[in-house]
Amino acid sequence: MNIFWGELIGTMILVLLGNGVVANVLLSKTKGHSSGWIVISAGWGFGLAIAVYMTGWASGGHLNPAVTLAFCMAKKTAWDLVPLYLFGQFIGAFLGAILVWLSYFPHWQKTPDPQMKLMSFSTQPAIRDYKWNFVTEAIGTMVLVLGIFGIFDAHNGISSGMGPYAVGILIFAIGLSLGGPTGYAINPARDLGPRIMYAILPIKGKGSADWKYAWVPVFGPLLGAAIGAVIYLLYVQPLMALMSGAI
After folding, report:
1. Per the count of CB atoms within 10 A, which of 43, 72, 116, 245 is most buried?
2. Phi first, then psi: what are they for 32, rounded to 5°?
3. C-alpha distances in angstroms, 43 versus 28, 104, 105?
4. Residue 228 has pLDDT above 80, yes or no
5. Burial, 144: exposed, middle or buried (Cβ in 10 Å; 0-12, 13-18, 19+)?
6. d(CA 10, CA 189)
7. pLDDT digits (tens, 9 = 90+) for 81-104
8. What is the pLDDT of residues 23-40, one digit of tens each?
9. What's the CA gap between 10 and 173, in Å, rounded?
């Protein structure tokens, strides 16, 4: 059960700190109101690093169904463990969203725009074009998977101690470079879990949970993760092994 509890607590912390920084920037009358996209990207990066440091030793620190898929495809995680990972990730996402709601409780009522409230839970595209939003999410998650595999590859020698910090930098970089079009969910649990809680929680003045868009940050990351795993297995890993042998 270390996997279940590690993923639950880790994903809860990830959503609490990640969605928390979004709420801090978007909601009215917060100390961080309108502080911008760099703050959001940094918050997600630092939040993930802390979450992985806290619970990665117990579960591997996937905290993301797309990462779990990639690890299974790369034979780094057994397929029969997937239900434990998924249950932990989604329950953790639910709890993290509830904690964000409680942390910013007075600010929901002070924020007139329902879109700002929704985006404090789940992602929304800057320009709504489902196919290109899907492509953006797939590319971002592909980079995430390739980055994680590279960071924790034994040839790099940086995974011990520095690994979670490096993954946090990776998330920060993806946000700065690729996050603008969609808000970079790159994680089905991070988006769908809080979106469900947004629909359930009694938030005054909220609008629709935008279920028409909800499939994009779920299936885009899953496809991107699969592509990233294939690229790593077929090209990157053999190349690194070849270079290591040559050296």
Report:
1. 43
2. -105, 15
3. 18, 16, 20
4. yes
5. buried
6. 12
7. 999 999 999 999 999 999 999 999
8. 999 999 999 999 999 999
9. 21
**pLDDT score for 190:** 98
Per the structure block, which two tokens stand in for 176? Answer: 């700065």
Residue with tokens 């993290």: 96
Secondary structure of the chain in the HEC alphabet? CHHHHHHHHHHHHHHHHHHHHHHHHHCCCCCCCCCCHHHHHHHHHHHHHHHHHHHHHHHCCCCCHHHHHHHHHCCCCCHHHHHHHHHHHHHHHHHHHHHHHHHCHHHHHHCCCHHHHHHCCCCCCCCCCHHHHHHHHHHHHHHHHHHHHHHCCCCCCCHHHHHHHHHHHHHHHHHHHHCCCCCCCCCHHHHHHHHHHHHHCCCCCCCCCCCCCCCHHHHHHHHHHHHHHHHHHHHHHHHHHHHHHHC
Q: What pLDDT band is residue 156 in, cutting at 50, 70 and 90? A: confident
Cβ proximity of 25 and 40 under 8 Å: yes
- Asked whether the beta carbons of 52 and 63 are under 8 A apart, the reply is yes
Place of tokens 């709504």: 128
> Would you state the structure tokens that stand for residue 159, as one six-digit string?
């995974």
Query: Please, are residues 132 and 211 in contact by the beta-carbon 8 Å criterion?
Result: no
* CA 58/CA 61 separation, integer angstroms: 8
Task: Report residue 159's pLDDT band, with 50, 70 and 90 as the boundaries.
Answer: low
The two tokens of residue 128 are 């709504």
Concatenate the DSSP letters of all residues of 183-200 into one string: -----HHHHHHHHHHHHH
| Backbone phi and psi for residue 226, each to the nearest 5 degrees, phi listed first | -65, -45
What the chain holds in terms of domains, given with CATH numbers, is: 2-246 (1.20.1080.10)
